[in-house]
User: Fold this.
Amino acid sequence: MAAQDEVILLDFWPSMFGMRVRIALAEKQIKYEYREEDTFGRKSQLLLEMNKSHKKIPVLIHNGKPIAESLIIVEYIDNVWNHAPVFLPSSESHPYERARARFWADYVDQKVLKFGSRTWTTKGDEQERAKKEFIEILKMLEEELGDKPYFGGESFGFMDISLVTFYPWFCAFEKIANFSIEPHCPILIEWTKRCMLKPSVANTLVDPNKIFDRITTVSKLYNFFYT
Assistant:
C-alpha cells in the first residue's frame, strides 16, 4: 500500500458482511482505521454521506472514495492490493472459476441470511420447515465444496471469505432454534474449522455468545419469535 493511502472502514461489530471486509484486509495486511457504526442507533454523518443510496455498513473509504457492499469491497481490495494472497482467479486465465466463485458468493447473500433468520423469527411448524430449508441450503454449499480444502481449491479465497463470517451466527441460530448443523453438514463444519486456523479468520469472527445475546435483544425489541 502506498504511503499516502488512507483506508477507513465503517462497520458494525456483529455484521457478517463487515467481518468479510475485515478478513480481506487482514489477509492482505492492509492497515486501516476502524470506525464503529451502531446501525440500530443514530447513523453517523460520514456513513450517510459515504453510502447515500443504502445508508448501510460496511463502507470502505479509500483515499476519500467510498466503496459499499461487502462482496464488491472484497473484490476491490483484491484488485487494488493485488499482491498475494489472491482471492479471485484472474478473469483472463481463469474466467470460469472466477465467475463460479462470484456466483456462489451471491448465492450465499441471496439465501443464507434470509433462510437462517427464519429459524429464529418463526415458531412451531413454520420454524421446523425453516430449519429444514436452511439445512438444504447448507447441503447445497457443502456439495459445491466437495472434497476440496477450500471452495476455490487449495487456497482460501473469495467464496470462503463470503461464507465463513456466518459461522458465529450459525451457532446462535442453533442455540435459539434448538437444532444442530453438524450432523447434516459435517464437511462444511470441518471446512469452518480449517478456516478458523487462519489468524485473519480466528481474530475477526465474533464470539457466537455475543451474537446470541444480540439476537435475543433484537428479538425482544422487534417482537420476533424465538424459542
